UniProtKB/TrEMBL annotation:
Alphabetized PANTHER family for the sequence: N-FATTY-ACYL-AMINO ACID SYNTHASE/HYDROLASE PM20D1, N-FATTY-ACYL-AMINO ACID SYNTHASE_HYDROLASE PM20D1
Protein name: Gly-Xaa carboxypeptidase
Keyword match Calcium: no
Source domain of life: Eukaryota
Length: 142
């Protein structure tokens, strides 16, 4: 358990007329899991994944560059670790198309929704081809 000294907030310029004199208490969850390993950004799985992103979000005269990012949630990630080490925490949507994320009014523009469908359709089709007929010795090799 860690406590934050309220005097540390004295230099913070208030945005609203609110008194900042409370305390924050942080707890460690007893059954917390370790951070998920970093997924590979090279090799056949990445090539299909990144290639599908490039194809699905291509625009005339533009270059699509799939890159890594940090996701703070990762609440479901631990469930996939027994299936594969290639866990890419990514949502196929352009910036600005999601609105009201995790609110009662969460929504996405129709164009963004259709692009998501296009991406998932392409991803499934692309993974059917290059690995079809290959025998995988263990799920962790995916």
């Amino acid at each position: 358990m860690a406590k934050v000294d309220p005097s540390a907030m004295r230099d913070v310029k208030p945005k609203y007329d609110v008194e900042y004199n409370g305390t924050v208490t942080l707890y460690t969850k007893k059954d917390a899991s370790n951070a998920t390993p970093i997924s590979l950004t090279e090799g056949p799985m990445w090539d299909v994944f990144a290639g599908t992103i490039r194809y699905s979000f291509a625009a005339k005269g533009k270059t699509v560059v799939p890159t890594g990012a940090t996701m703070t949630g990762n609440t479901d990630t631990r469930h996939y670790l027994k299936l594969t080490r290639n866990i890419y925490r990514w949502t196929p949507v352009r910036l600005g198309q999601f609105e009201g994320l995790h609110t009662v009014d969460e929504r996405i523009e129709m164009k963004g929704h259709m692009e998501m469908l296009k991406f998932y359709y392409n991803l499934i089709r692309n993974f059917q081809g290059p690995f079809e007929g290959e025998r995988v010795a263990a799920p962790s090799e995916l």
